[in-house]
Amino acid sequence: MLIENPLMEARQVTLYYGASEALRDVTLQAAPHQITALIGPSGCGKSTMLRCFNRMNDLIPHVRLSGQILYRTHDLYHPDIDPVEVRRKIGMVFQKPNPFPKSIYENVAWGARLNGYRGNMDELVERCLRQAALWDEVQDQLRKSALALSGGQQQRLCIARTIATEPEVILMDEPCSALDPIATLRIEDLMRELKERYTIIIVTHNMQQAARVSDYTAMMMLTDDRAAGTIIEFGETQRLFTTPSDRRTEDYITGRFG
After folding, report:
1. Strand ranges inside 31-137, DSSP E
2. For residue 17, is it within any domain?
3. Residue 220 backbone zone (phi > 0: left; psi -120 to 50: alpha; other: beta)
4. What range defines the domain where residue 80 resides?
5. Over 90: is that where the pLDDT of 178 sits?
6. Could you tell me which of 190, 229, 253 has the C-alpha nearest to residue 50?
7. How far, in whole angstroms, is CA 139 from its chain's centroid?
8. For labelling alongside 135, which of 37, 141, 228, 240 has CA 20 to 30 A away?
9. Residue with more model confidence, 1 or 76
10. Domain count, the chain
């Protein structure tokens, strides 16, 4: 399916790590203020594809990418584009919470300060912690080490840290895989709230999570020669989970393989 006026778009993206092909001819769109989920078996390139959207793969030696990644119709891999600016506009939350070994306050303020934020930092920190549904729990502990927080709190702090640099897109690479069910539900509730302000692309192995939180879903598999990952089906989540058009999608989401 095609999305009218997508905020982000991958067009025929193929990626190599050295001589090893990781992605082949991937085309994908992300609608503004919607959650797009990437699902599929381990090793099919979901996280690699996610990192293409903010040029995180540039940090890996010997990576080659062909095709286009478009953000507001601009090619993010054009030579004139600054990858640091790309990562400011397209933030990322990783699988394992990774707060800085600093205070809760400094975790939120650090990136904004590096990006030259000139406003009231106290107000920014409070606003971001509120948006991350963490303020009520930590407002009296802002000088406490972030490492003392629970896993779920740390992940919400990492989300607050990401939105402090005022991105438009948030990438989430299995953000709940290290969390217990209660913390997972908190993050899912938070994602639904955040999509009012941000566009979210998430990688998840949890089919129930993809069905609960996403608006669109892309099913990834290895190509027939098993050399690289590609998208075999993309569409609105409700349709894809109830009446998938590809038998492999149905087999995967019902647990018959993968």
Report:
1. 35-39, 63-71, 74-75, 90-93
2. yes
3. beta
4. 8-96+168-253
5. no
6. 229
7. 27
8. 37
9. 76
10. 1
